[in-house]
User: What shape does this take?
Amino acid sequence: MVEYHNDISQSTPNRLGNDYTKTIVNSKDEKLSPLQKHVQFWDRDNDGIINPWDVYNGFRELGFGLFFSIGSLLIPVFFSYPTRLGHSWLPDPLFRIYVNDIHKAKHGSDTGIFDFDGNFSPERFEQMFQRFDTSGEGGLTADDLWRLWAKDRCAADPAGWTFAFMEWWTTYVLLQEDGVVKKE
Assistant: This one.
């Protein structure tokens, strides 16, 4: 096993304790798609399942308050069924998210940085910053993120608009430094 620093923990060293700044990588992790690796933070016991309490506890550990963390429980409510479809047509009564099928929970009105198979597109990531970094500071301000969100909205997709807004708002609250979400 090899230890490496998680991208989230490098960006927010003051918000995470020492217990959460390292992630264990094993041979199983090498077979995960980039999107699956992106959500590994929430799968604390590495069983391939993210429970609602994992989501709540993860947000608390990232430094979010009680009400925001309770609100984060909407994530398993909306993402559980699409990820469950790889296992059964019946909804999961515990609203668990299945990491191996997380790509099935990809919603519309997003940036397209992750494709429908869960692969990361570095070109699209770079293009996003080149196009929307109006301040030239190597990051995105709240106004830049608002324009990005408005540009990505697909017609007749209010659920996708809402999910994208919540994701960008959470990203801004978590990662912004002096009002800018840096690319690194």
About this structure: The longest strand covers residues 2-5.
